[in-house]
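Q: Please design a sequence for this.
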C-alpha cells in the first residue's frame, strides 16, 4: 500500500484485486444506486439486466480518470504495461524517454481494456443527481452488489481533492496507478457522494478500449463488450423520475398522495412502455417506486404497475 494525497492505494497480485484505505473510517452502504437517463442504452441495460463497465473516455467529466495523471518513467513498469507489445515498442522507440512517452500514451487504453469503471451513489433522492444524470424523466436502480456474479474490486469511495497531482511509475506500479487514476476527482464533484467498482474483464478476454493507441487492443477479435449481466436477486428497486409520465394524455389524473392512482394509455410502444412492462414482469421480486414532490423536497412513493391491456397501465400506490 502506497500513499497518494493522504489515501493508501495498492494491488494484491494473489487475488488480482485493488486495495484502498482512505485516511478516515467509512461505512459501506448495504445497497448502491445508479441514475439512468431514459434512452435506448439505459432501457436495454435495465431490461436485459446488465451493468456497463465504462472506459474513462466514456465518462462525463473530461478530467475524470485524467489521462495525464499516470506517467511511465522506468523500464520495469513499461514492460509490465505493454506486455507482449514491449519488444516491438522497444525496437521502434529504443530505450529511455521515447519508449516511456509511448508507454504513457498507451496507459489508459491498455489498463482499462482489463478493467472498467462502474459509478454508483448511496442515495436515490439526490435533487442534483436526478436532473444531471436522469433528466428527471429517467430511472434509478438499486443493487445489492454482493449478488453481482462477476469479478470486481470495491466498492471504493471517491477521493475528492483540491488539486490532482501526477503519479510516477518510479513510485507506483501500473496497477496502483490505474486505481489512483480511477479514484481521484476534483472536490467540485463531492456533492455526488460517488462510489466506484472496478470491474475486471473475464478471464482470457480484453475489453474494447478507447483513447490513444487503442488500436493495439481493438484490432483483436472477440473483445468483451463491457456488458456484465447480473441476476434478478441483485436488483432491489427501480425508482422512476418525477417526470417519467410527463406530457402524456392521462385518462385519470393523480388524485392525491394518499390515494395515488394513475391510468395512462400510450399511443405506441416507446421507452416508457418497455420500462413499465419490465416493472410488471418483476413485480413481487423488485420494488417499484416513483419520485414525487413532497413539500419543498423529494419523497419516494412505492407503486404497483398493472398492465390493463396493450399499452394501457394502472399505477397505484402501495
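A: Design:
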Amino acid at each position: 500500500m502506497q500513499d497518494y494525497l493522504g489515501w493508501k492505494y495498492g494491488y494484491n497480485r494473489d487475488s488480482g484485486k485493488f486495495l484502498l484505505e482512505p485516511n478516515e473510517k467509512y461505512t459501506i452502504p448495504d445497497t448502491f444506486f445508479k441514475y439512468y437517463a431514459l434512452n435506448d442504452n439505459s432501457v436495454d441495460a435495465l431490461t436485459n439486466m446488465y451493468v456497463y463497465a465504462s472506459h474513462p473516455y466514456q465518462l462525463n467529466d473530461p478530467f475524470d480518470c485524467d489521462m495525464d495523471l499516470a506517467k511511465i518513467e522506468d523500464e520495469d513498469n513499461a514492460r509490465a504495461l505493454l506486455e507482449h507489445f514491449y519488444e516491438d515498442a522497444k525496437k521502434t522507440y529504443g530505450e529511455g524517454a521515447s519508449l516511456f512517452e509511448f508507454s504513457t500514451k498507451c496507459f489508459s487504453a491498455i489498463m482499462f481494456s482489463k478493467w472498467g469503471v462502474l459509478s454508483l451513489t448511496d442515495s436515490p433522492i439526490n435533487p442534483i443527481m436526478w436532473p444531471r444524470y436522469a433528466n428527471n424523466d429517467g430511472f434509478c436502480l438499486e443493487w445489492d452488489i454482493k449478488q453481482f456474479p462477476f469479478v470486481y474490486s470495491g466498492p471504493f469511495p471517491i477521493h475528492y481533492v483540491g488539486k490532482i497531482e501526477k503519479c510516477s511509475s518510479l513510485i507506483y506500479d501500473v496497477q496502483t496507478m490505474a486505481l489512483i487514476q480511477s479514484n481521484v476527482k476534483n472536490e467540485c464533484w463531492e456533492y455526488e457522494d460517488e462510489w466506484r467498482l472496478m470491474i475486471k474483464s473475464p478471464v482470457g478476454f480484453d475489453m474494447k478500449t478507447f483513447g490513444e493507441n487503442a488500436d493495439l487492443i481493438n484490432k483483436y477479435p472477440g473483445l468483451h463488450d463491457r456488458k456484465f449481466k447480473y441476476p434478478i436477486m441483485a436488483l432491489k428497486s427501480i425508482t422512476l423520475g418525477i417526470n417519467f409520465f410527463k406530457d402524456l394524455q392521462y385518462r385519470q389524473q393523480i388524485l392525491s398522495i394518499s390515494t395515488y392512482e394513475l391510468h395512462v394509455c400510450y399511443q405506441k410502444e416507446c421507452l416508457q412502455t418497455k420500462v413499465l412492462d419490465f416493472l410488471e414482469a418483476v413485480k413481487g421480486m423488485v420494488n417499484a417506486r416513483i419520485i414525487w414532490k413532497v413539500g419543498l423536497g423529494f419523497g419516494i412513493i412505492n407503486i404497483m404497475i398493472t398492465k390493463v391491456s396493450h399499452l394501457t397501465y394502472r399505477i397505484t400506490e402501495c
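Q: Thanks. Anything notable?
A: Residues 245-317 form one domain. The first strand starts at residue 2 and ends at 4.
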